[in-house]
Design a protein that fits this description.
Layout (H helix, E strand, L loop, with lengths): L1 H8 L1 E3 L1 H4 L3 H11 L2 E5 L2 E6 L2 H25 L9 H8 L3 H4 L8
Parallel strand pairs: 1-2
Antiparallel strand pairs: 2-3
């Protein structure tokens, strides 16, 4: 029963926009979360606050990165690793040149 009540409370008929109540609807979305806009008894779109949207996109991107990382680990072969010394030699880096350099990885 709670799911039905939640579904009803989270739907907005598109006619409310036509009656000039968009501001009220947007305030409710900011206060209470996402709303589904209904048109002709079918879901037409979902309204989210910008913060909710960014949060969802962050989760989607994190899931994509996790999938890529998992695939890479499945194919990981430790015999193909290249040491830092080998990279330095190949590109002509010296430890003196690299001293004091800070790298931020996000």
């Amino acid at each position: 029963m709670a799911n039905i009540i939640g579904a009803i409370q989270n739907t907005i008929p598109i006619s409310l926009f036509n009656r000039g109540q968009a501001g009220k609807i947007f305030d409710e979305v900011r206060r209470c979360g996402a709303k589904v806009v209904m048109k002709n008894n079918a879901a037409e779109c979902v309204l989210l606050s910008p913060e909710e949207y960014v949060s969802l996109m962050d989760e989607v991107n994190d899931a994509r990165l996790l999938t890529i990382a998992s695939e890479r680990m499945t194919n990981f072969n430790p015999d193909t690793l290249v040491s830092q010394n080998e990279v330095d030699r190949e590109f002509g880096f010296t430890s003196e040149e690299l001293e004091g350099i800070e790298v931020d990885i996000e």
